[in-house]
Amino acid sequence: MSGSPGEGDGNLGPLRAAWRARRGPTGEALLDADERVFFRQVLSTPCLEAVVRAEGPWLVTADGARILDFHGNSVHQLGHGHPAVVDAVVEALRTLPFCPRRYTNPWAVRLAERLVAALPGGIGAWKCLLLPSGSLAVGAALKLARYATGRSGVVAFEGSFHGAGLDAASVSGEPLFREGLGPLLPGVRFLPPPTRGTCRFGCRDAAHTGCTDALAELLARSPDVGALIAEPVRWTTVELPPEGYWQRVRAICDRFGVLLILDEIPSALARTGRLFPHEHFGIVPDVLLLGKGLGGGVWPQAAMLARAELDLVPDKAIGHYTHEKSPAGAAAALATLEVIEREDLCARAGRLGADLGARLEALRARHPLIATVRVIGLMLGIELRRPDGAPAPAVADRVLYGCLSRGLSFKIGGGHVLTLCPPITIGEAELDSAVAILDAALAEAAGGGEQ
């Protein structure tokens, strides 16, 4: 079985090997060359396919196959190669291909203004730091929290993922990125997330008040903790928090002077039906992290937004990176935000997500393997379980490759959750095709024996 129990589907099992053996000659040659020169690592190399072109919701392989991309590493809210983003990047590259770090430029300033203006209080209430990747934004937030609070401890959640760098891995509860590394950042405490049934704190109420009580107790006896970092919605498995949970967490953080860092890197920018996922839950973080889709799926771009009163250390370096204020990255992000607003993609994500969720519920009525369907905007999770209630990772793997063979790509989260993340700009005909492919692959996989 090649399904990973954590962040994504694995790439070393028999189904991946069988898939690889059926590639065409052009794709096979590229895959072989890739493996010769790149480090082998889980979730990456050996690769799944060789792609040579992308447009809108489609990937085109080296052998000419067309695949609907419902994965996209969560960078393709606008689809692949949106013309407005490409044109903006090209213009920036022709005008100012690189901005040395000691200088500023109009693209970077406009982007920072646009981002902080989208938060309560706007310019004057928030400050921005631009960075080349989401993992680096996580590291910058952890440094800022230490400077601002004078405390190095951090609370994070089991099963979480915040990036693969050593600092980001230190606050990630995903074992895949931690095991065998040796010492990581000290002072990190992990609590169970409030979204996976009855937790070890005995939470049996829908609100998981035991989890928030445990957080308050932990902070009361841990004066070294200065920050809590979390995804407001766990992207990999599309796990939604209980009603009122984040409001209680916000109040507890305020009580103990702990900064609330929300990692919205994979889920922000209209994906959930709001520009920022935390808007669904009636809270405002102290630090907000953005990335992935911020560059429009064209350029790597991330950002850290923090309350202006945390700008306390002008003599310190928080995110001192060569490509801090990339003109091309900022241009891509500005164009992305403009398209989201002009095409009202927040409303579109909510509308299409509700429709797709209803169709998936109809599939659940026909396929007993589907235990639950979770939806927030155009983030959707299909949880597969066996008749005895146990997770069904082997079936999830079979569904994945059955869908790939029919032209649909997505991610498996937690080993048994089909995570669907289509472009928000996708057409309804493509959504129809995706549902039909899922239907056929689920029926085929259910008859495949051991689950």
Any chance you could write out the topology, listing elements then pairs?
Blueprint lengths: L13 H8 L3 H13 L13 E5 L2 E4 L4 E4 L13 H13 L10 H12 L8 E6 L2 H16 L3 E5 L8 H5 L17 E4 L17 H12 L4 E6 L14 H12 L2 E5 L23 E4 L11 E6 L19 H16 L2 H22 L3 E7 L2 E6 L8 H14 L1 E2 L1 E3 L3 E4 L7 H19 L5
Parallel strand pairs: 3-13, 5-6, 5-7, 7-8, 8-9
Antiparallel strand pairs: 1-2, 2-3, 4-10, 9-10, 11-12, 12-15, 14-15
Report on the structure:
The protein has helices spanning 14-21, 25-37, 83-95, 106-117, 134-149, 166-170, 209-220, 245-256, 327-342, 345-366, 393-406, 428-446; strands spanning 51-55, 58-61, 66-69, 126-131, 153-157, 188-191, 225-230, 259-263, 287-290, 302-307, 370-376, 379-384, 408-409, 411-413, 417-420. The protein is of the alpha/beta class. It folds into 2 domains: 14-80 and 344-446, Aspartate Aminotransferase, domain 1, CATH 3.90.1150.10; 83-342, Aspartate Aminotransferase, domain 2 (3-Layer(aba) Sandwich), CATH 3.40.640.10. The strands form 3 sheets. The chain has a 7-stranded mixed sheet with strand order 4-10-9-8-7-5-6, with helices on both faces. The protein has a 4-stranded mixed sheet with strand order 1-2-3-13. Strands 11-12-15-14 form a 4-stranded antiparallel sheet, with helices on one face. It is globular, with a radius of gyration of 22 Å.
